[in-house]
């Protein structure tokens, strides 16, 4: 990844430049004081570059080929959920915590504390869990980088929890019998995190539900990307049900009915995935459940190369025809479709 040594904020990193061009809605002469700020916690569905560039595939080819044209630390060929929510709010996509400079221009639209691969609990990925991410945020609040006034007047929190806790649970040989208790512990921890974030004065906290895990290419590969797994989808739906109950309770307890907002990724993914079925004539998502970028011959994964530098992956001709970019993550076009489906619940954020 190239680093540039320009003086202005506009060329700190090449990807930041491109993002600014697309989301550059900074109106001339506009006061920055009450600019909407977005703070993000969570995982790869929201991370825009916090993982180390030396090791993460999100910083390697072919990630980023659609936008900005090269790897940008996102697990997508282009944008991720964060970028679409930021564009909805009319702000530049917030700077990743790892790249921040504590100057107004860097931090005025908020900050992204999400790290790919993480959950509320520690996962198989050695990166900050959500508690640790909130600790980073708390540190900045204690340093008055963001004042209580900044946070209560115009700030929005986005929490993306997409299933890494469950992936870890099953990888560690968790049983189906123990799943209900484990789900409750995930939700309990998530609720603690949400309350803590709200405690900083933020008046809107949006939380994603989990998408249809059973439809992820990593799961459907065994059926040649034909059939979703009911078990995986049930895991997601049980989590989502508990989460929604808890959000109702939290909203009730805070006495304001709409502080905590549920973003229904399950329905949004499902309607995007049904698009092909309902519009077979359309080229959009022609590839169904099959990801655009995948490992060859059951070895490797999107972005992997062997010791001699030979690619161990293939990329589809037109990423716009795939809902999924790799075996876990939606493509730029996939996220666009999800965003379109979510738009109905987004106005409650502002
Ligand atoms: C926070 O608000 C103050 C005014 O209350 C403003 O001067 C400052 O720029 C804001 N900070 C950020 C990071 O936007
Ligand atoms: C988060 O990570 C820290 C450091 O690894 C650990 O001590 C803590 O228990 C974790 N929190 C949760 C809720 O798992
Ligand atoms: C998983 O756990 C069950 C019961 O706890 C045990 O019988 C089984 O051998 C374990 N499997 C693996 C692969 O560790
Ligand atoms: C997928 O599901 C259909 C209908 O339920 C079934 O007929 C088919 O055998 C399944 N395919 C695979 C590869 O499991
Ligand atoms: C919270 O729930 C109680 C009991 O169901 C109800 O009486 C009260 O009006 C609710 N408060 C809010 C703010 O929704
Ligand atoms: C099919 O895709 C084109 C653009 O790719 C779009 O303009 C059109 O509205 C789509 N058709 C349907 C039925 O959504």
UniProtKB/TrEMBL annotation:
Pfam families with a match to the protein in the record: Lipase_GDSL
Keywords: Hydrolase, Lipid degradation, Lipid metabolism, Signal
Keyword Ribosomal protein: no
Keyword Cell wall biogenesis/degradation: no
Position of the signal peptide: 1-24
Name of the molecule in the record: GDSL esterase/lipase At5g03610-like
GO BP term, pick one: lipid catabolic process
Coiled-coil annotated spans: none
Database matches in InterPro entries: GDSL, SGNH_hydro_sf
Organism listed in the record: Fraxinus pennsylvanica
Similarity comment: Belongs to the 'GDSL' lipolytic enzyme family.
Molecular function terms from GO: hydrolase activity, acting on ester bonds
């Amino acid at each position: 990844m190239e680093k540039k040594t320009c003086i202005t904020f506009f060329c700190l990193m090449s990807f930041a430049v491109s993002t600014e061009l697309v989301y550059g809605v900074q109106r001339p002469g506009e006061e920055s004081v009450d600019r909407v700020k977005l703070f993000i916690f969570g995982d790869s569905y929201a991370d825009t570059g916090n993982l180390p560039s030396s090791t993460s595939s999100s910083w390697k080819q072919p990630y980023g080929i659609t936008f900005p044209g090269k790897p940008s630390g996102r697990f997508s060929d282009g944008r991720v959920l964060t970028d679409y929510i930021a564009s909805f709010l009319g702000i530049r996509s917030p700077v990743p915590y790892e790249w921040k400079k504590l100057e107004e221009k860097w931090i005025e639209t908020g900050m992204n504390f999400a790290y790919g691969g993480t959950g509320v609990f520690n996962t198989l990925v050695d990166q900050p869990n959500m508690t640790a991410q909130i600790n980073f945020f708390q540190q900045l609040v204690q340093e008055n980088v963001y004042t209580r006034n900044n946070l209560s007047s115009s700030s929005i929190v986005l929490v993306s929890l997409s299933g890494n806790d469950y992936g870890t649970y099953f990888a560690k040989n968790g049983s189906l019998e123990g799943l209900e208790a484990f789900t409750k512990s995930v939700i309990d921890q998530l609720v603690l995190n949400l309350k803590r974030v709200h405690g900083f004065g933020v008046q809107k906290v949006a939380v994603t539900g989990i998408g249809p895990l059973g439809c992820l290419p990593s799961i459907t590969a065994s059926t040649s990307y034909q059939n979703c797994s009911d078990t995986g989808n049930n895991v997601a739906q049980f989590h989502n049900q508990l989460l929604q109950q808890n959000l109702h309770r939290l909203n009730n307890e805070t006495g304001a009915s709409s502080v905590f907002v549920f973003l229904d990724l399950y329905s949004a993914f499902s309607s995007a995935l049904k698009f092909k079925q309902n519009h077979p004539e359309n080229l959009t998502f022609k590839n169904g459940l099959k990801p655009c970028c995948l490992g060859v011959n059951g070895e490797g994964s999107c972005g992997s190369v062997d010791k001699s530098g030979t690619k161990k992956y293939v990329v589809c001709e037109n990423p716009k025809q795939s809902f999924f970019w790799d075996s876990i993550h939606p493509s730029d076009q996939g996220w666009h479709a999800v965003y379109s489906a979510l738009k109905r619940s987004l106005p409650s954020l502002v």
